[in-house]
């Protein structure tokens, strides 16, 4: 998957989990600036991403995620 495809898929997952059809973001978007983002939705997102992308996150690597691009970097690395 290209980075653009990863971003598109992550956006689709986010819209579904956050129940926000108009949600948009870029690599530079900070998660703290996404109004619907909270700790519970974070967990739902992680579970959904693991299923959709066929990966397993290590909890420690998610602690450093601040913006969308950080998360995409991890997904891209795990997908190999």
What's the short version?
The chain is 59% helix and 0% strand.
What labels describe this entry?
globular; Non-ribosomal Peptide Synthetase Peptidyl Carrier Protein, Chain A; 4 helices; mainly alpha; 80 residues
Which descriptor suits the 3D outline? globular
Determine the structural class based on helices, strands and strand pairing. mainly alpha
Average pLDDT, rounded to a whole number, is 94
Largest sheet: none
What is the CATH superfamily?
Answer: ACP-like
CATH-defined topology: Non-ribosomal Peptide Synthetase Peptidyl Carrier Protein, Chain A
Q: What are the low-pLDDT stretches, counting only 5+ consecutive residues below 50?
A: none
CATH architecture: Orthogonal Bundle
What is the domain tally?
1
DSSP strand (E) fraction?
A: under 5%
- Give the helix proportion (percent range): 55-70%
Using only CA atoms, what is the Rg? 11 Å
Q: Could you please describe the fold and organization of this structure?
A:
- The chain has 80 residues and is mainly α.
- It has a single domain (3-79), classed as Non-ribosomal Peptide Synthetase Peptidyl Carrier Protein, Chain A (Orthogonal Bundle).
- It has helices spanning 3-18, 39-53, 59-62, 68-79.
- It starts with a helix and ends with a helix.
